[in-house]
Design brief:
two-stranded antiparallel ribbon, alpha/beta
């Protein structure tokens, strides 16, 4: 046994029956890799080279009014068209944009972006969810996933804003 910081003994696996080894051959969900195994894994693939990794969670943050939505929309448009974003190679794919806050303003931004880039919105491979699902509720998260899948899937999902889809949640704490 080891002493914890609060001088209370820390239990060992034998004291927690749920931690006992199982007889089934199911793989571990969270395997522990050696340093060598981890370091020698293949390099990540990128949707936007050195900016937006494939199959990862990325947060775009900044002060209110600093242009985060414009930046996310610009990235989404480049991904949807397979064009470089700010000189960075982009892998073409489908984007679903969850406009959870200020849908009217987002609509105007989309129209302005399409006009600026001389793109017909009908040809743009971007789907929009015009709602604020509550991602703290399992049913909402599942319904969003089902909707995205039913619409043809997505290579990138943009959630704008994270605070709007977590009502009562605190993105700055582990609550």
């Amino acid at each position: 046994e080891f002493d914890a910081i609060a001088d209370e003994p820390v239990g060992v696996a034998g004291e927690f029956p749920d931690l006992a080894p199982t007889d089934d051959a199911a793989p571990m969900r969270f395997p522990v890799l050696t340093a060598s195994e981890f370091a020698n894994k293949p390099a990540p693939s990128w949707i936007i080279k050195h900016v937006l990794p494939d199959a990862e969670l990325v947060v775009l943050y900044g002060a209110s009014g600093s242009g985060k939505t414009f930046m996310a929309l610009d990235m989404a448009g480049c991904i949807a068209r397979g064009l470089p974003w700010r000189g960075k190679k982009t892998k073409q794919g489908r984007v679903v944009y969850i406009a959870a806050e200020g849908a009217g303003g987002f609509r105007n931004r989309m129209q302005a972006d399409a006009q600026h880039n001389e793109v017909d919105l009908a040809d743009l491979n971007i789907g929009v969810i015009n709602a604020a699902p509550n991602f703290l509720e399992k049913i909402d998260a599942l319904d969003v996933a089902r909707s995205i899948k039913a619409s043809g899937g997505a290579d990138v999902v943009v959630v704008d804003t994270f605070a709007q889809v977590m009502p009562g949640g605190n993105e700055n704490a582990g609550e």
